[in-house]
Every structure is written in structure tokens, then in C-alpha cells.
């Protein structure tokens, strides 16, 4: 078969999204071997394009000295994201949850909500649902609340988000086992599942 350096020579000439997708499906040992032949800048760019969960998994698998040498080459937001995800036990929902979600204030009108989501969408890992949170980022009530994008588009323009949001949404907690989360997503036929932290806030601990 091809040597790791030869594989990288092929991968580096294809679009980054496709490159990352192919890399993520390679055998873990081959990934580690490839990391060993990449220049720091190449590795930093590759890791920056990866999903947060895959990024952390890869960094955990490479030698500590190589990992520490790489960290300064990453953007501050990515470094913080890596440290945050690494702080949760492996195999839990917290270790793979998105850094950010599409969130809305309950007081917005549909047009305002759509404009906000349109601006945020390119930077969000998932935008299948928009979650409604209060000023402290706590999910409103005792369960998470979401607004389907279809609901936003079809909603009367004079109704606020709090009038059209769904109250009975399924969520996971940061300590939940990933397999349980996957089963929950499958059971309820969901496209995404919000993860709440120890303070019942959406997303990572603050």
C-alpha cells in the first residue's frame, strides 16, 4: 500500500471538506502515522477542519510532546474547544457535544429569528433546530425548547418565538453515555440532540 506521506500528497490536493471526511475514515494507526509526517502548519489546518469530537480523538492519540507543540498553531477558540471537550470523560455526550448551537430569545419575531440564524448558520455545526434559551443560556422551563425551521418560515409574522416553540423536546446531559444518546436520537428520529451541562444550560459549562 501507499506510505503515509504518499497518501497525504494525494489528500492535500483535494477540497478540505472531502479531505477531512476521507481522513476521518482511515484506520486510527494510519491517521497517527500520517500525523507524524505532516508539517505543523499542515496538521493545524487539518485539525481545524475536523469536527470537535474527531479533533479531540486524534489529539488524544498522538504523543503528548507533539500535541503540546501543535496547540499554539491552533486558533484560540479551537484550543479552548479542545480543552473543554477533553475535560469530559471519553464516551460521554459532553465529549462530543457541539461548541455552539443556534439559539433564540423567546421574545424575537420570526423574521428576526430567521435573520439571526442566517448569520450564525455558517459557524454552527448543526442548525437543524434552534433552541430557545433565557438570558443566562438556561433552557426555558425544565425541558429544552426548540423551534423547527419550518415553524419559523410558516409562522405568522406577529407571533413571538415563545408562542410557536415546542416544549416537549428530547435532550441529553453531558454525562450521558454516547451510545445511549445515539439510541435516543434513533428512537425519536431526531436530526440533532441538544446537550445541557451541569447547570442545565445549553452547551458547555460556563
Provide structural commentary.
The structure is a single chain. With 206 residues, the chain is mainly alpha-helical. It folds into two domains: 84 residues, MgtE N-terminal fold (Alpha Horseshoe); 94 residues, Roll (CBS-domain). The chain is built from eleven helices and five strands; from the N terminus they run H-H-H-H-H-H-H-E-H-E-E-H-H-E-H-E. Strands 1-2-3 form a three-stranded mixed sheet. Helix 1 packs across helix 3 and helix 5 packs across helix 7. The longest helix is centred in the middle third of the chain and has 11 residues.
What's the layout of helices and strands?
Blueprint: H1 4-11, H2 16-24, H3 28-37, H4 40-49, H5 52-61, H6 64-70, H7 76-86, E1 103-104, H8 110-120, E2 129-132, E3 146-148, H9 149-154, H10 161-164, E4 172-173, H11 178-187, E5 195-196
Parallel strand pairs: 1-2, 4-5
Antiparallel strand pairs: 2-3
Helix pairs in contact: 1-3, 5-7
Descriptive terms for the model:
3-stranded mixed β-sheet, mainly alpha, MgtE N-terminal fold, 206 residues, CBS-domain, 11 helices, 47% helix, two-stranded parallel sheet, 2 domains, single chain
The 3D shape can be described as elongated
Per CATH, the architecture of the largest domain is Roll
Strand % is 5-15%
CATH T-level fold name of the largest domain? CBS-domain
Number of strands: 5
Amino acid at each position: 500500500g501507499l506510505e503515509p506521506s504518499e497518501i497525504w500528497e494525494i489528500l492535500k490536493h483535494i477540497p478540505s471538506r472531502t479531505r477531512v471526511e476521507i481522513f476521518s475514515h482511515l484506520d486510527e494507526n494510519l491517521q497517527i502515522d500520517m500525523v507524524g509526517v505532516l508539517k505543523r502548519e499542515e496538521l493545524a489546518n487539518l485539525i481545524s477542519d475536523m469536527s470537535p469530537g474527531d479533533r479531540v480523538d486524534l489529539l488524544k492519540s498522538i504523543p503528548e510532546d507533539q500535541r503540546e507543540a501543535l496547540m499554539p498553531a491552533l486558533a484560540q477558540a479551537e484550543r479552548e474547544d479542545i480543552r473543554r471537550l477533553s475535560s469530559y470523560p471519553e464516551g460521554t455526550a459532553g465529549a462530543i457535544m457541539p461548541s455552539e448551537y443556534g439559539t433564540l430569545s423567546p421574545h424575537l419575531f420570526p423574521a428576526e429569528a430567521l435573520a439571526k440564524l442566517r448569520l450564525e448558520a455558517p459557524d454552527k455545526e448543526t442548525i437543524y433546530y434552534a433552541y430557545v434559551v433565557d438570558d443566562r443560556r438556561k433552557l426555558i422551563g425544565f425541558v429544552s425548547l426548540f423551534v423547527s425551521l419550518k415553524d419559523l418560515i410558516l409562522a405568522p409574522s406577529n407571533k413571538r418565538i415563545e408562542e410557536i416553540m415546542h416544549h416537549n423536546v428530547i435532550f441529553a446531559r453531558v454525562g450521558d453515555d454516547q451510545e445511549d444518546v445515539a439510541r435516543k436520537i434513533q428512537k425519536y428520529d431526531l436530526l440533532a440532540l441538544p446537550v445541557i451541562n451541569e447547570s442545565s444550560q445549553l452547551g458547555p459549562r460556563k
